[in-house]
Amino acid sequence: MSYKSLDIIHDEHRALAAMLSGLRALASGIEAGRLTPDFDLMASMIDYIENVPEKVHHPKENTYLFAKLRQRCDEVLPVIEQLEQEHTQGDARIAELRAALEAYRRAGASAFAAYQAALKAYIEFEWQHMNTEEHLVFPLARKHLTAEDWAEIDAAFLANDNPWQGAAGEYAALFTRIVNMAPAPVGLGG
Q1: 4-181: which CATH number, 1.20.1290.10, 1.20.120.520, 3.40.50.2300, 3.40.50.170?
Q2: In angstroms, how far apart are the furthest CA atoms of the chain?
Q3: Buried-state track 126-148, b at ≥16 Cβ within 10 A, e below 16
Q4: What sign for the dihedral angle of Cα 19, 13, 66, 174?
Q5: Boundaries of each Hemerythrin-like domain copy (predicted)?
Q6: CB of 89 within 8 A of CB of 165?
Q7: For 110-144, what is each residue's pLDDT tens digit?
Q8: Which residues pair with 183 in a beta bridge?
Q9: Which helix H or strand E contains 130, and what residues bound it?
């Protein structure tokens, strides 16, 4: 059976993981003295996280995949409830990260440690969240959802603006701009 919607979620997870890894690499480079802070780049990366995972990705999971799985598998209900709660906290978590970056921009090096701590907390949270989805929810979805369920979910995911194509193609453009701005090994920039 084809799981197009799970492929889309996995691809979006990979894009988010790339952005998180890039932010971590930039912070490590700054800490080691190899890089100077590029606040516009880091803000663009946070914009990407805010606009794609928080505004496009999580609502699709809640509305389509989690809703169907709730109907078919009682075992997954506590996990889904936790993930949905985490989704509702996304805006606040992004705001904390953005505030830490802005404090760093204003105060300079004295605020770097606080920014780095906020970034580390955000990254750890997101890794745990994605791993829960990929290693607990996806296998249960494959096991319990019917072919009809998958047809509905896949149709919704394919019709619901793919952040990389169509009307929402600005996310692909933002991702490309970030890759071109970021220095190696994070991106292609100088």
Answers
A1: 1.20.120.520
A2: 56
A3: beebbebbeebbbebbeebbeee
A4: positive
A5: 6-141
A6: no
A7: 999 999 999 999 999 999 999 999 999 999 999 99
A8: 189
A9: helix 112-132
